[in-house]
Structures are given as C-alpha cells and as structure tokens.
Amino acid sequence: MFDKLTALFSTDLAIDLGTANTLVHVRGKGVVLNEPSVVAITKSANNTRVLAVGRDAKEMLGKTPGNITAIRPMRDGVIADFTVTEAMIKSFIEKANAGRSFVRSRLIISVPAGITQIEQKAVREAAIGAGVREVHLIEQPMAAAVGAGLPVQDARGSMIIDIGGGTTDVAVISLGGLVSSQTLRVAGDKIDEAIVNFVRKRHNILIGERTAELIKLKIGSAYALDEELDLDVKGRDLITGVPRQITVTSVETREALQDCVRQIVGAVKATLEKTPPELSADIIDRGIVLCGGGALIRNLDVLLSEECALPVFVAENPLHAVVDGVGTVLENLPKYHRLLL
Hints:
Blueprint: H1 2-9, E1 13-17, E2 21-26, E3 30-36, E4 39-43, E5 48-53, H2 55-58, E6 68-71, E7 74-75, E8 78-79, H3 82-96, E9 106-111, H4 117-129, E10 134-139, H5 140-147, E11 158-163, E12 168-174, E13 177-184, H6 188-203, E14 205-206, H7 209-219, E15 230-237, E16 243-249, H8 250-273, H9 277-286, E17 288-291, H10 300-308, E18 312-314, H11 321-331, H12 333-336
Helix pairs in contact: 3-4, 5-11, 6-7, 6-8, 8-10
C-alpha cells in the first residue's frame, strides 16, 4: 500500500549525468534542468560542506579562496567523488521537483557504454543515497540513438557517435542492443586540456579551463574552414607572471585538436571493422549520426565523412540527444524496457 501511495505522489525523472553538464527530464514536462556538473565545497577538520551546485558552482571554478574548492565529481563519465556526486544528484532532483525533497522519484540515468559493474553500482548507490525510490541505467549511445530518432529496436544497423565531456561513445545498434561499440576517454575535457597545453607551448600563456572551452566553442574546428576565425583571450604570461592578452586563430586551434580528433576517428574505424557485413550495408545507406557537445566542433562531420567514406549527419539537437532519449524511454517504459541495463 505504501509503495502504491509513493508511486502516486512521486515524480519520475530521466537524467543525463554527464561529466560536463547534467540534464534532467521530468515525466510529462520534458527537460526542466540543464546545469554544469560542478560542486563547490568547503572542507574543515570535521566535515565537508556543499556551498553551491551547478551554475553557481561553475562560476567559482578557478576563482576560489583556499578554504573553498570547486570540483567536478564526475570524471571520464564515471563517479570520481562518491559523496559529492550524491549531494549533486540530490540537489538536482530537488530543483527538478521544485524543492519537494519528500518526493521519492523513480529514476533512469544514462551511463557510458564501457562502464564496469562496480561503476554501475556506484551510480545506483549515489542515486539511492540522494533519496530516489527506484533506479534504472541505460547506456549513453543507446539513449542518444533513441533521442536522435534512430530505429534502435529494428533489425537494421544504426551508428551513433556521442562525444560528451568525459567520454566518446561509438556504437552500432540493432534489435535493441549494441552490436559493436567502443568507449574512448577522449572527449570535451581532453580537448580543453589540449587547448590549454597548446597555448602554453605556443604563446607561453597559461589560460584557464573556462577560457579553453570558450576557444573550442567560438573558433574550434576539425577541418579547414571557408573563412578562418580568431579570438582574443587573456591569460597569465609564464615568463613575466603578469596578465596578457593574445589572439588565437582557428588554424592554431585545429592543430591543438589534431591528436584528440585522430583518436576519435580511430575509434570510429575500429567500431566499423567489428560490425557484421549486413549491418555495414545499412550504415552505408543511412550514414552515421553525430551528437553530444563535441558535435558542435566545426566541420567534425566533414572530417569523419572523408576519413570513413560514409555520410555523417549532426543530430537535430546534439546537446539534448541523450537526455531526450532517456526521457523517451521514461515516457514509454513498457516499449523500451529491454534497453535498460
């Protein structure tokens, strides 16, 4: 009786628990929350206290005094700090439930395709510790394929590339399962890191994580542009130690991204090599769908298409593909139940 009453007054949620951003879909309402996966904490001898979560915490990245730390508890798509992740999930659930913390939700969370049993258990326990009634997991490439409108349950091959913050998932899907897949720990974070390292070596300037992300979004490209771009950025001169402004070009950014892009191309080719011939024929006809934040890098689809000799399309809403997919599964659970882990 209690379980029936709980179900009646609970709000079912779908969460894309990403390394860079967390998106929450509420059943019947759609996506209600999109915030950075960042938590600001203060540590004392006795305890750790959460000061801010999400957008407020991201504003503190790289700007905090000694007693406050702004951290990202998800690394490479999995939990790096269990306690802080639990607090972050709880905060996002309360925001999605409009502060009604007593509501014990049923939850579906997306996880990378290569996640281990131990990592799956950590995600489940963090969600249950945050007050969730029931937890289900779905692999991110499967969720992204559903969100992109691919016929994942048909006997036809669909290929998806999901470039998130911590991982790149490449998968060929047929009959509701991953036929061949590869998870690469090279994605948005590693690309930002590559830009930081490149600017330091080329210009002797140290820039922050947020500045690197800005460069990637504003002028990042994987293939030559019709009109090359540039951007003025500020950082600390490593020789004089004083702040200095420089101009970074899209040609330089492309050079910085070269190694990461090469690894993503390699993962796509390796996945294609393991794909059965019948499904390969379907992919030739229907092409590859690209989603996630990495899909916004200019001309990445052009480069992948040239390297793999296949048509490559960017999903209609690449940033929301995974959460839209998890939300679709939540809204139609009987139909998609076998897609869950």
